[in-house]
Every structure is written in structure tokens, then in C-alpha cells.
Model the fold of this input.
Amino acid sequence: LFDRVTEPLFLPKGEENIVFKLPTEYLAPRYQSIVSEITDRWGGVKNRMEIDVKPITLPDLSIPMTLGRGENFSPFLPHHRQMASRLVETFLGMRTYEDFLSLSIYCRDRINPYMYTYALSIAMLHRSDTNELPLPPLPEVFPDKYVDGAVFSRARQEANVVSSGNRLPIVIPLDYTASDLDPEHRVAYFREDIGINVLHWQWHLYYPFSGLMQIVKKDRRGELFYYFHQQIIARYNFERLSNKLARVKRLLNWREPVEEDYFPKLDNIVSSRVWPPRNAFTTLRDINRELDQIKFDIQDLERWRDRIYEAIHSGSVVNEKKQLIELTEMDGIDILDNMIDASILSVNPNLYGDIHNLGHVMMGFCHDPDARHLETFGVIADPATVMRDPIFYRWHAFIDSIFQEHKKVIPRYTVQQLSFDKVCVTAVEVITEKAPKNEFSTFWQQSDIDLSRGLDFAPRGPVFVRYTHLQHAPFITKLQVQNDGPPRAGTVRIFLAPKFDERGLPMLLRDQRLLFIEIDKFPVQLKTGSNIIQRRSDESSVAIPFERTFRNLTGVGESQQAAAFTFCGCGWPQHMLIPKGRQEGLSAEYFVMVSDGSVDKVEQPPPEQNCRAAHSYCGLHKRRYPDRRSMGYPFDRVPRDGVNTLREFMTPNMGIIDVKIRHSEIAVGPGPGNVPATLPNLGEL
Ligand code: CUO
Done:
């Protein structure tokens, strides 16, 4: 159903020439009068696989059908969100799998293709009869949202002229959106990384803003929103420091022109237009677009912001019944996020508004705030493309600073809350093959992605693009932990942060704590005495391998299998786990902590899926977040009084080492499974 979603369904789909046999009333009205022509045309297709579609009594689809097929769609826009939520509800309401399939087929050629993909994906992830089915990665459905628009005419040419087994991948250079004349372009490899952008879109599918309570109300949803986006900003700042750029500035003053520009170079196959760019020093303005049923002023956002700050400083929010709800140490962040984010879980939408989503909309329409030019929004207003634009990081740095304001007013962790009695981390080491001890090694790698599912031209067969992304050599973390108590459960928490600031000076923990990126978190059983723990980078609870972000691609022309793109497909891309660093080596601090497993543990059945879920940023499907501590612990709060540096913060169950991240400008080609280097042999350690 996702294959060539902009083309009519009755055209053969996939390599197997699947032909859907539709009841006449299922055909889009335009085609109903040419049924015999369609039947004749596809009757002769060899080796076709026919699927009979059973008609059902159709529900009312008038609301989602209001959005035109050729219009752009974004869940950040309230009107679009309402339409999509209605469609998701209708999909979820279908009693049997057969009815759901039939309705999905009926909708496919009638609903806006992007809204259809969004709503159907959410429905499939949340229906018990479909949540194990693989969904295709979005770059295969809408490659236009991820790759240079210039690729498509070349892809068409390659597909037309060269038979499917002999096609060469179309190479997308690393620098296709800008040149080094723009200093911000130094971190374009991060902003435009396909894996990172896919994750962001997926994340918002798992945690939608609106819809039925059963799909929105998930364990610590708000807190996870805050933590996921906080970590994105920390990782972005780490990349900026790697590239000698200062940390991103919060977008605080919405009346000042925005310095950062962005020219996305993306096509939009749904609207057949290009994505609008934003010029440097564009002024943000009040939005009044009848077309999109949206009207708000910058002043609305300012008012909501002030009310949110007031709530944080008074320690409680006011709900719709005018009752005070305390922003507690553990749950305050969840409440706060749901009203900023803003989801339907907001305690008081009238009072606290919709600041985060409408911020995206304000920035997305700054080139045409009253729709006089009939222009659509820029990449900053679509969750599939937002992370490409430098302004995304300025906006989310602002959003994060609100959460940090709350973290500033709650109690600091005491030494006791940080310690683990009689447990001591005695040694930490990072081992990377062919690199000195305690050194990470990064470089460039090329990988291939098949676009053919999303291309609307014949002849069929794979059409690959080859894109260049950051990669790091796999590594092992080795720890020595002394347990002078009885055998006990512990949780190992590993973080990495830059050691020096922009000026090369050591950082105060107050600032450095915001730059700690999570690398891994896992349970351990400690025996009494000395414990040696070894953990491979590909086991990280943060990241998933390239093959799971995309599909099981093993290179051009080789077989592909759909990797299960369910919850297992959610995770930070493994190739972006370690920031780029510098050629001369970037100094960083590698922090390891073993916390008390009996405090951390969440009692619940094991996850349903048999894959290893990257739960740190994505949580678990149908389960509670598997760590009872506040997300980001122990760096989520301001350090206790009298503690200024990381070293002063340390308790015996923590360890830090100085590490270097060394970048090499070499580019490794696509290899089998895209694995660049081997892990060190554990036997040799
Ligand atoms: Cu993910 Cu603003 O929430 O982009």
C-alpha cells in the first residue's frame, strides 16, 4: 500500500506485479468510467499476483478528505492534525483485519498521500493485528523528503535506459545543499543525515500529539519528548564543537530577524513543487492563513511562554478546573512537556497554548505568513524534514531551556541519591581496533538506499542512491567494578561530553551536564568482589544498526529483505553514535556510572518483540520506560551546592576517563552489510 503512493492503486505494484482487484466503487471517481480499459490493460501483465479486495460499508471520511491530494501535510498544523487523528481513529475502529485492509485500500487513492502514509503508519503500529508487520522506511516511500531533488531526473534516466541489474547508484555528494562559505554548513552532515531524519519522523509516529487516548497516553510520554529532543541538542552541540562552531543559540527573541538561512534543495512529489527556502535575516511574523485554517500572533506565543515560566517558578500548573497541580520532582517534567509539546494530555490548552507546534508553524510560514503567494511551509514545519534546518536547533534549544528552568528549581541529587553503597568503579577503558587506548575513530562512509518504491516511473527495479554519512569504528567499553557487598543488580550508564568549551577552557559541570550524550545503559549482575564488564558499541541501548533504519541492504543488486520496521526500527542511527571529533583529536570525557539496580528496576513482563529495542530514546512498545530514574540521570539536574566540576561531582560508583575522538577524512565505500571495520577480538583484550 505504501509503494508509489502517489500513483493509482490499480497499477501493478512491487517487483511481483501485484494487482489489486478493486470493487468499482473503490476506484477513484476519475477512473470509474474506464473500468474495462483498466481491466484490459492489466489483464495481459504476466506473472501478476492478484489480490481481491472485499468491499465494506464505508465510514464517514469527509473530514480527512478535506485536504486536497496535491497539498502539503504536516501534523504540526492543528487543522491537519485533526484530520489525521480522525483518520487514525477510523482505521483503529475497524473491527477485523480484513475490514481494516479494505478501508486502507479505499482511502489510498482518495486521501492526501502524505497524510494517508502518516495515519496508516500510526494505525498499523497501534493495532494488535498489524503491529508486527514491517512498515517501509519513509525514504523509500517519499525519497523526495530525504535526498537531493536533482537525483530524480537522473534516476529516471538510469531506470529508462539501463536494465535493473546493471544500474549504477546515483552518487549524492556530501555538500549538495550549500558550500563552506556558510559556516553552518560544517554541520550539514548531521542535520541532513538520512538516518537521523528518519528517526525523528518515526519518533513522532510512536508518540503522536493527538488522537485516541490509547495511542497518545504512554508511560512518561512527555518526559521522553523532552529527553529525546534534549539529547538531539546535546549531540548537535557536540558536533558543532567538533567543527569549531559555538554552541547553538536559543531562539529567544521572535521579533528579531533570524540570521540562519536554509535552502533545502528538496522536491515535493505530493505537491509537485520545491520546498521553499528561507533567506538570511528573515523576520518572523503573525500567521493568518485561511488556506490552512490557522491564525495566531507572535504575541500568543509570548503569552504562553510567560505563563509557562510563571508555572515553573511557582512550582505548579493550573488545570481546566482551576485546580493547582504540583510540578513534582519526578512527574513535573512529564506534565510540563505535555503542555509545551503540546499534546492532548495538556492540563490546560487554553492557558498554556500550543507553543512548540505553533513555533514550528511560525518558522515554517515566515516566507508567506498570510498565504498571499499560495506557498506551502518550509522544511521546519514537517517532522520528516525539520532536522535539516539550522533553525530547528535554535528553536529546540529554546524549548529545552524551558525544561531546564524546571530542572533548576527542583531539588539537586544528594550524594546518597547518586551513590551505590559498597560499589566502586575502579577502571574504565575504551578499546577501538587500530586506535590508541581510549580513542574513538570516526570517518566517512558511503551507503546505498533503494528509492524505487517511491519513484513514480517505469521501468521498475531498484534505483539506488549512494549517500555519504559519518561513521565510527566499533569499540568496546571495558569496566572494572568492585562490589564489597552481596551479589546485586546494577545499571551501567555511559555518557560522553566534550571536555573543553569553545575557547578551549575546562567547563563547569553546570554547562557540561547539558552536553552529555547518552552512549549506553544496561543492567548487570554484580558478584561479590571484582567484576570485569565488557560491552560492545553495537549493543548500545541508544542506537540501532543502519540495516534496521533502512532495510537489510547489502549493496547494489543484492537481495533485500524488509527489516521489521516496528518499534525495533526506532533508535538513534548507529553510524551517528559518536560525534565527528577533530582530525587532531577532540578531547572528551567518558563517564560511567553503576547505579543501584533495585532502585532502577521497573517490574514488568519482558518486551514482546524478540529484537533488541533501543529504548533509551524510544522507550518500549506496550511497556513502561524500563528505567525508574529521571531520564538523563544523573545529569538531568543542576549539581548539588558546592560542586562545580565533574570531578567534584563523582561518587565511588562513577568513573571518568579522558578520551579523544579522532576524525579521518577518508571515505569508506559501501561494503557487505555496510560494516566498516571489525570489533576488536575480545579474546585479545
Ligand atoms: Cu520533534 Cu519539534 O518536536 O520537532
In short: The two ends are 50 Å apart (CA to CA). The pocket of CU2-O2 cluster is lined by residues 200, 204, 229, 356, 360, 383, 386, 396 (CB under 6 Å).
